[in-house]
Design goal:
CATH class of the largest domain: Alpha Beta
Number of helices: 15
CATH topology of the largest domain: Malonyl-Coenzyme A Acyl Carrier Protein, domain 2
Number of strands: 8
Distance between the termini: 7 Å
Helix content: 40-55%
Oligomer: single chain
Shape: globular
Low-confidence stretches: none
Number of domains: 2
CATH architecture of the largest domain: 3-Layer(aba) Sandwich
Largest sheet: 4 strands, parallel
Strand content: 5-15%
Strand order of the largest sheet: 2-1-7-8
């Protein structure tokens, strides 16, 4: 059988009407949406783009879509009936890591995952909001050679917060920090083409995965006192290290519960090493990577990182059918 991994979409992949055809085509996906509740379904199927931009709406919406897509994939492959192997690994981009931990059994249920994601989204929104109600912090995608982007970050920071926070592919590094610093980064990139960097502002509500999210990390630490987690039953590739949970667990102290809580607090305020994650999957013999959730952002990045890998996705009835056929066909 094909050795495959499943990766879960993060915030930013959302779009109006996402998941509707999957809901209609897959009983397993429909069951996930029904368990998530009517408000969740309304936001998935009926909310406009403006509402879906709101972090507290986006994160529960995308998490549910991720889990529904994964349930539909398992159903189509017959995994629970023994018709096909479990994934050889899972990972998720930022928010998507919560779906990965749910798929691996560390987060015990969809309901528990939703409660956690909702709390996380509110903490991140608060951390990204200034005292006067305006947005605090910004993000931009730095397109170009990694070293050139990092050099421009150093040049642009001055006395503000500005860091590289998403190491997405060899030619895409996202930066985040104070809005003035992100604006300087974009201005310098546009003003000196010899730098070889193009800056694309991102439509987000805060400087995610940067030091400006530390208040969200502190708040999440308190929220996590109400949750309990177990060691994953599948190999999980981590945002904050780019490596496997089992490697992290070897040197981290405490129980699986405490280790996972520490990872979640770390992840919300530190970079995502996506390129390293995909490269490790490939070196571990993964032949196919399937993106579960809205859009094709992660599968697109996979092709840029590892052009020879098979990259598929599941977000609607058509992509579900195509992906299941490709996997079953070997």
């Amino acid at each position: 059988m094909v050795k495959y991994a499943v990766v879960f979409a993060g915030q930013g992949a959302q779009k109006p009407g996402m998941g509707k055809s999957l809901y209609e085509a897959s009983p397993a996906a429909r069951a996930v949406y029904d368990r998530a509740g009517e408000e969740i379904k309304s936001d998935r199927f009926e909310a406009d783009a403006e509402r879906l931009k709101q972090t507290e709406v986006t994160q529960p919406a995308v998490y549910t879509m991720d889990m529904a897509s994964y349930a539909a994939l398992r159903e189509a492959l017959g995994v629970d009936e023994g018709g096909f192997d479990e994934p050889s690994g899972v990972a998720g981009f930022s928010l998507g890591e919560y779906a990965a931990f749910t798929a691996a059994g560390s987060i015990g249920s969809l309901e528990e995952g939703l409660a956690l994601v909702k709390a996380r989204s509110l903490l991140m929104k608060a951390a990204g909001t200034a005292a006067d109600g305006s947005q605090k912090g910004a993000m931009a995608a730095g397109m170009g050679d990694r070293d050139a982007v990092l050099a421009l970050v150093e040049k642009s920071r001055e006395d503000d917060v500005l860091e590289a926070v998403n190491f997405n592919s060899p030619q895409q590094t996202v930066v985040a920090g104070d809005a003035t610093a992100v604006e300087r980064f974009a201005t310098l990139a546009a003003g000196d083409r010899s730098l070889g960097v193009k800056a694309i502002p991102l439509s987000v509500s805060g400087a995610f995965h940067s030091p400006l999210m530390r208040p969200a990390g502190d708040g999440l630490m308190e929220v996590l006192l109400n949750f309990s987690f177990s060691a994953p039953s599948l190999p999980v590739y981590l945002n904050s290290t780019g490596g496997l949970y089992e490697d992290y667990a070897e040197y981290a102290v405490g129980t699986s519960n405490s280790k996972l809580k520490a990872l979640m607090v770390c992840q919300i305020q530190n970079p995502v090493f996506w390129q390293q994650t995909v490269e490790l999957m490939v070196s571990n013999g993964i032949e196919t990577i399937i993106e579960a959730g809205p859009g094709k952002t992660l599968s697109g990045l996979v092709k840029k990182i590892a052009p020879d890998i098979t990259a598929l996705h599941v977000e609607d009835a058509e992509s579900l059918k195509e992906t299941a056929a490709r996997i079953k066909g070997g």
